[in-house]
Amino acid sequence: MNKELLIQTHQRIKPFIHKTPVLTSQLLDEIAGCNGFFKCENFQRMGAFKMRGAANAILSLSDEERKGGVVTHSSGNFAQAVSLAAKKIGVKAYIVMPENAPQAKKNGVKTYGGKIIECESTAEAREFTANKIQKETKASFLHPSNQDEVIYGNATAAMELLEEQPNLDVIITPVGGGGLLAGTALAVNQFTPNCKIIGAEPKEVDDAYRSLKSGKIEKNESANTIADGLKTYLGDRNFPIIKALVNKIIRVEEQEIKEAMQLIWERMKIVVEPSSAVAFAAVLKNKEEFKNKNVGIIISGGNVDLTNLPFG
């Protein structure tokens, strides 16, 4: 991995993404005891950072590969990202979604022109269905988090944040499948090596925390968390990056996620999804660690099911 590759990735995807704003809040700084810089990927096209990785993965395909279309399995944001990126680039998108995926996210996929194929809500069913489509259509498979091109695309969010705020002491991101955390780690390592990289994860699905401790990819027995975007586990492409470059992973309780989400909604007046709030929840939980520091917080997305808010 080198700087040049990341810079080329950013140039490649620029026409297909938004350069999202970095917001600050004096009030939240007072509550958290640090200087927070929120990189707002909830304002990204389709509402999440996933647009970056999806666009890069499709643009990295050859003309011949693009003719067969692309296929992915995702319960939400990556499904929407692939659908929109494929539409903009002129490629057919097949999206395998578990039948219990949030309706708001299914609607998003349809709006962006993706063809939904539903399956049972197990990882095995997702993979089986995606493989079947791949064989039938010759579509190229795109992994939501465990593919180099996706990871490099995700890295561009932290690159933009560091361009605007080069003096950050730490960047913290949510971790589910590991694609955002790995991409962020690569960007920080190349552009601001003295900045720490921290992941934030719900305690109910703390496989990344346990993986970092044990040195091998761990799984979860249950997935009982409000942060529906963080129920997936790490992969063999992103875990080595996380293991080598990430300083630590902080676990947060469900109530702490809800409180952080509510604070962001109320004080910053922006819509963030529970998975995004996990990063800020980790800052609030460990105030001593972040005291008076410049903290970059990547708000991963804002695709919320408004009929099912955790507060109100």
TrEMBL record:
Please provide the record's keywords in A-Z order: Pyridoxal phosphate
One Pfam annotation reads PALP
Q: What positions does the domain Tryptophan synthase beta chain-like PALP occupy?
A: 14-301
Matching Gene3D superfamilies: 3.40.50.1100
Lineage top rank: taxon: Bacteria
So which residues are the signal peptide here? none
Q: Which SUPFAM superfamilies match?
A: Tryptophan synthase beta subunit-like PLP-dependent enzymes
Cofactor(s), by name? pyridoxal 5'-phosphate
Q: What is this protein called?
A: Pyridoxal-phosphate dependent enzyme
The species is: Winogradskyella marincola
